[in-house]
Amino acid sequence: MTTASSQRRPLALVTGATGQDGIYLSLHLAATGTEVLASRRTATARDLYLAHPRITVVDLDVTDTAAFAALLRARQIDEVYQLAAVSSVARSWDDPRATVAVNADAVEGMLAAVRHIRPQARFFQASSVQAGTTSPYAASKLAAEGWVADARARGLFAVSGRLANHESPLRPAHFVSRRIARAAACGDVLDIGDLSSERDWGHARDHVAAMPQLLRLAEPLDADICTGVRQPLRALAEAAYRAAGREPGAYVVETATVARPADPAAVGGSAEAITRATGWQARTSVADLMAEMVAVEARRLATGAEDDPGYLGMRVSE
User: Fold this and answer.
1) Which tens digits make up the pLDDT trace of 48-57?
2) Architecture of the domain whose range is 10-163
3) Where are the beta strands (DSSP E) in the chain?
């Protein structure tokens, strides 16, 4: 099924394209024949990941609805993947207003623009299995899901994909998976507090591949994008040190600390709906995920390069 005329390739807009998910999704879409407008607010070193003949990088602040509307008028966009977000739960507490402005208010404006300017376009909202839990991040994601449902009731093909935790070497350095991978690669003792909180851990590469499958169904479907298995944070730490050839017991220290406000002890989802509808399943184990991340951290330490397109192709065997 295609959402575009048979006379041309489908055109997708990916917002937040220099984020972890935006990079993997833009490259996945381009590799499978879709032309991509990869939008970001400003140019950064991460633009280098988007070098592909079917990817065009454009400037766009998703909170600027007028600019988004102008882009819809200028280009025959068939699919919108709204990935731009304040994506850190912890940091959402620091600036709740900015979190709501990007994660919810911008989505409302974008959906309204699509309805009025290009109603045949399909809209994917990157939501979270944490939507509805207690944090500014979770509240903003739940609000965005409400705007998606409203737009769908008005005739737009719009869906929310609720992503569970999905990691990769492209996570920013402050995310816990990167901190663990770096400590393991360095051979440092890891002491980041309580490791008992459970999450559904997957690889971003797997999860973004589910997005176009969900968006291209015959009928709209909101669904969780996840592995369906919850594991404690301790599992990531142990897998990372084993990948680095180190005995976890000698390096992983667990001490009681004050948790983030209202940080849920366990969060996960069910992949049953998306698997039934599309056949999609997560492919990467926690062991392979952390082995890849540790390998990239080791390369970063050796070269001093935070960003390198070669990191995308590294696998466990390297």
Assistant:
1) 999 999 999 9
2) 3-Layer(aba) Sandwich (3.40)
3) 11-14, 35-40, 55-59, 79-82, 122-128, 157-163, 166-167, 190-191, 198-199, 202-203, 223-225, 231-232, 252-253, 266-267
